[in-house]
TrEMBL record:
Name under which the protein is recorded: SKI/SNO/DAC domain-containing protein
Organism in which the protein naturally occurs: Cirrhinus mrigala
SKI/SNO/DAC domain boundaries: 68-164
Family membership noted in the UniProt record: Belongs to the DACH/dachshund family.
One of the Pfam families matching this protein, by short name: Ski_Sno_DHD
Length: 167
């Protein structure tokens, strides 16, 4: 069989015939400028919750069963963040809480992973569908294809460790 050659060009993908498809045309109501905070707008949340945001389906596959891909917005330190219920436990998006609360306290995400290891915190790796949902909500950057989730309790332990390290 002949393999199709694909090439990526600034957010568009083309097949060997040169026809381009825009990868970012997902029906977002308001694109978020890169310099803006990754906080979610009400219209993005509402379109996702009502099912028009794409990727909100629950298929029952993988750990967590039926609720594996059901994303909710929960409040952490006064800010809404994305969360999934996996095996009956609420898990929040680690890159999102890093960006909102930790990046100004530590050197980078690598430092956070070092702290997680020292604190004996094991994040849960997102499924491909969960990553798509988080990207669609704007909780993670468009180019991100991996993500981890942690419990609220583990986030609080990590946050306390980061804030105590600065004193």
């Amino acid at each position: 069989t002949e393999r199709r050659k694909l090439r990526i060009n600034y957010g568009r993908i083309s097949n060997s015939s040169g026809a381009f498809t825009d990868l970012h045309s997902r029906g977002r109501e308001q694109p978020v400028p890169p310099a803006e905070s990754p906080r979610l707008t009400s219209s993005m949340i509402n379109s996702f919750i009502t099912g028009t945001g794409g990727g909100g389906s629950t298929n029952g596959n993988g750990p967590g069963g039926v609720h594996n891909n059901e994303c909710k917005m929960v409040e952490v330190h006064g800010v809404k963040v994305a969360s999934f219920t996996v095996d009956g436990q609420e898990l929040i998006c680690l890159p999102q809480v890093f960006d909102l609360f930790l990046k100004h306290l530590v050197g980078g995400l690598h430092t956070v992973y070092t702290k997680l290891k020292r604190l004996d915190i094991c994040p849960v790796v997102c499924t491909v569908e969960q990553v798509r949902i988080l990207r669609g909500l704007g909780a993670i950057q468009p180019g991100v294809n991996r993500c981890k989730l942690i419990t609220r309790k583990d986030f609080e332990a990590l946050y306390n460790d980061c804030t105590n390290a600065r004193q």
